[in-house]
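subagent[fold] <- orchestrator: predict structure for attached chain, return tokens only, no commentary.
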Amino acid sequence: QKKKILVDPTELRHLIIELARMERKSDINVKIVFNYNNSSTNYLIYCIESVYPTRLQYQKGVKGILYQAERKDPESKVINHKLRSSISHRLINESAYEAILVNDDNLITEGSRSNIFFVKNNTLITAPDNLILKGITRKYIIEICKENEIDIEFDCPKASEIKQFVTAFMTGTSPMVLPFAFIDDTPFSLKVPIIERLRHLYLVKAEDSIQRFRSDFLKQTDK
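subagent[fold] -> orchestrator:
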């Protein structure tokens, strides 16, 4: 069941800016949590540790692992502490960067904290919207594909068939467009120009979004 947002978007933007000022940092990662209880509701806005891939990880790729799990409500970002703890334990044990979720039908849906794309014959393949939590970075990548006539298909690859793909990458706020060197024991090519092209186009779009945010904020403060 979809919940009503607990704060007006304009007020939310103002609170985030005030938090950034209090922290005295130009770049911070912010987490927003809405709590819906039977008797009351509230929300939290706070800074979280910034963890970004290194330049070497962008160049050499990262390791992913397949993990049997499925979100109960894919379209809502609900915190599942037990699942998160289990995934973190396996990532540490296997020196992996991301867990790639596989549902009961053996289909790859998304990452534990990212969206997943595979590449075959210069076509991107990613899960349909209704089966995943739709990330903002994924939304922009899809827009970029439409704007630049890059073919994209919405389908869930079978976990048993990932060897047929040339390469794979994850998208998210921190990783942006980050390639996989391996998923379990399956290696992927890193010499695929489309990944670097998508990362460049995404950075251009992200910078444009930041500039528009700053412009809108300055207009509001001048009133």
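orchestrator: received. Logging for downstream: The longest helix spans residues 193-222. The helical segments are 9-23, 55-60, 81-93, 136-147, 193-222.
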